Amino acid sequence: MSAARPLPLLRALAVTAALPLLLTACGYGSEAKKDDDKAQVAATGDKKLSAAEVRIGYFPNLTHATALVGLQEGLIEKELNGTKVKPQSFNAGPSEIEALNGGSLDIGFIGPSPSINGYVKSKGSNLRIISGSASGGVKLVVNPDRIKTLDDLKGKKIATPQKGNTQDVAFLNWISEKGWTVDPESGKGDVSVVRTDNKVTPDAFKQGSIDGAWVPEPTASKLVSDGGSVLLDETALWPDKKFVITNIIVSQKFLKEHPDVVEAVLKGTVKTNEWINANPDKAKASANAKLEADSGKALDAKVLDPAWPSIAITDDPLASTLKTQSEWAVKAKLIEQPDLAGIYDLTLLNKVLKAAGKPEVSDAGLGAK
């Protein structure tokens, strides 16, 4: 009979035996998720940030590539030193603004028109635009058997994602500049503007119930893969071929209470954008992997490959183009003349850019005082 082992030794053996189970339960074992590995705390001893979590919203669109890649690669969470990222996917701007207004979202990737509407409706009290994210990635795709030139659009049915959304405003302005008229509420006029969810638009196009669509990627390339033809790339309508399609907004309450967390997120987005632009093929695959994780289905190469290069990833919010888009919405009688003074607060972004040796960006005179 062997001698009894000392109690401290027995305790040490018990802990050692239980350690693999404990590590697996915590997400460090062979079954651990890839995202858990990426979410490791940045550096032991770094100062913890002021919030335990940050809730970040985005759309499952390629024009939200900064969010898709930043979350997929862990580049945003890496900067947060233990603050947990809680991602939330949205299909439309109004629902994301509602979540921000309701206090269930802190930071969001979103288009310019919902940003303007959300800011105006709250009388400037609820959100700030804190960074750019993407430019371009919007196309007019048509049925080539029915429409061969831009003049052929008269009398046809063209889809946009939603009344008053960024693409809807741009299309209504284009129609106006052609000298045609459309009622902005009903969409009826010289061109029938059919407000259709991007998820439904490809089926409507295949069935022939619409003749084309003014839509963002990847919907535009999905229509092309179904036989559509690109009649116009919206970048051709803008000076320098740049216009904001996605920017980053924050709840003013969260910005005031947790500026350190907002700054950390911006460090992550700036590093993400740098990585995307330096590694376009890897970034394209990463964005597609995130789309597959969110929706259960990756984009086909015939959709992904033409869509990806049409989107420019940028930290610059291209503030002057947001001002132009607001003027278009007023012209279309979708909104009254807005007071956009204070819609931007680029202080933390410019701090991050300066620290990274990058040029600062402008708020076009619409910054918070």
Question: What does this molecule look like?
Answer:
With 369 residues, the chain is an alpha/beta fold. It is 40% helix and 16% strand. The protein contains 14 helices and eleven strands. The strands form two sheets. Strands 2-1-3-10-4-11 form a six-stranded mixed sheet, with helices on both faces. Helix 6 (166-177) links the parallel strand 6 and strand 7. The termini are far apart. The model is unreliable at 1-45 (pLDDT under 50).
Give the low-confidence spans. Answer: 1-45
Number of strands: 11
Number of helices: 14
Reported for the largest beta sheet, the result is: 6 strands, mixed
Approximate helicity band: 40-55%
Q: What is the residue-mean pLDDT, rounded to a whole number?
A: 88
The arrangement of helices and strands along the chain is HHEHEHEHEEEHEHEHEEHHHHEHH
Could you tell me how far the N terminus lies from the C terminus, measured between alpha carbons in angstroms? 82 Å
Beta-strand percent range: 15-25%
Give the helix/strand class.
alpha/beta
Cα-based radius of gyration, to the nearest Å:
24 Å
Give the CA-based shape: globular
Strand order of the largest sheet: 2-1-3-10-4-11
